[in-house]
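So, can you check this one?
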Amino acid sequence: MMAAIAGIAAAIVGVGVGELAAALFAATSGPFTVVGGALIDAAPTWAKDTAIAWFGTADKVALLIGIGLVLVVAAAALGLCEARWRRSGVSTFVAIGAIVAAIAVTRSSDAGMPSWLPSLLAGATGALALHLLVGVLVGRPEADAAAHAELPSRRRFLAWAGGTAALGIALTIAGTVARAGTSAVTTVRDALRLPKPSAPAPAPPAGAVLDVPGITPLITPNADFYRIDTAIVVPTVDPASWRLRIHGMVAEEIELTWDELLALPMTETTVTLSCVSNEVGGDLIGNAVWLGHPIRELLARARPTADADMVLSTSVDGFTASTPLEALTDDRDALLAIGMNGEPLPLAHGFPVRMVVPGLYGYVSATKWVTDLEVTRFDRDRAYWTDRGWSERGPIKLQSRIDVPRAGRDVAAGDSVIAGVAWQPHTGVAAVEVQIDDGDWRRAELAPAISDDTWVQWRMPWSAEPGDHRIRCRAVGADGETQTEASAPPAPDGATGWHTVAINVR
């Protein structure tokens, strides 16, 4: 038992050293970040779907907790091994540090000499701590005879182990504080004043916001906007060093700096974004006012060749998305966005620059921290999620959701209301229908939409009678399509079905 504690304490101090070193030298190359990112990259589609279904936007927190639990178990086992077979646990700590360091070099956005340093230091520190703690526990051959004859007490060992673990926790906290508090990028963002748009977004039409308590807000606040991406640690990109390269199947390559981007005409538009992992009735969707430069203007300058049909966008953290070329060159407001709801992009949502493309799920279009656009073909290149079995093009499916009343909550008998939102960006919604139990479908009141690229609120009065009830909704698109009843999971191209809630009226 004491040897297991030695292993755990050694692992904690090793991680602490590694995380502090990452904060100082290579922000995205901390041991937990590297292992977590590698697991995300290696995870099969079903594992990714399960994580998002269980934990939603807390999936990365859950992953880090899981890594921590596995580390505790493994470290305990290495402590026991070291006590029984000297040098076995120590050498394994070193080997693990070296392996994670090698992974850091191959996948980190900090790739180069500093990227391997945090994990290597973590492994070496853990190995040294384990060697010393087990030496205190069982005695060292090199100690003099008197010291070897009188083994240290259990209390003394626990004091050493506790101090080692406390040091590791303190170093981890220091690394977290250093990473958050010394970021010049945060200071730059906070001081940034966005340029005025040459084409401002139209104001929401009168009546677009329905007076229904509990309904989803028409505009999603930045703090509430969903975040789904592959970055364990949010990248911090200095606008002064940011560059966007447009290349591939083009007549003219383009490289754009931050100052050059700011000097271009800016368009402001309201667009609803949705994650392909959103279940029917789910909340991995949001509507915001975006500010940016139309991507089609940059592509017009680059002049794609006639046989190109895809743009492979790459993030600073290595994520890639495959966007149909026509979605970036038609009349929709596909933007290189720099602003969100009147302020610079939050770091977690892609500061300084991200892509916003109406009508497409995020996995094929909404690349954050974007630095590269390669004009290519679907039959030549594949992106991060298409490599993992998801469809190539990802148009957002026609969907509707019941916000009021909430599933599983009691409703008072009498006059009530059923309300929610519906969406099909780049197509628009023409109607929403509601069915109570097995009754007829009834047309709900549809609020005016900001545009075809945004969701729309809807409501329907309801005289609620006591008992258990089932309520479901379906939308009708502006093109005449009725939302399908067929139930399908998110993979490979978006969930389908009618959102249904069970309600008890008392």
Q: What stands out?
A: The first helix runs from residue 2 to 25. The chain has three domains: 2-182, 222-388, 399-505.
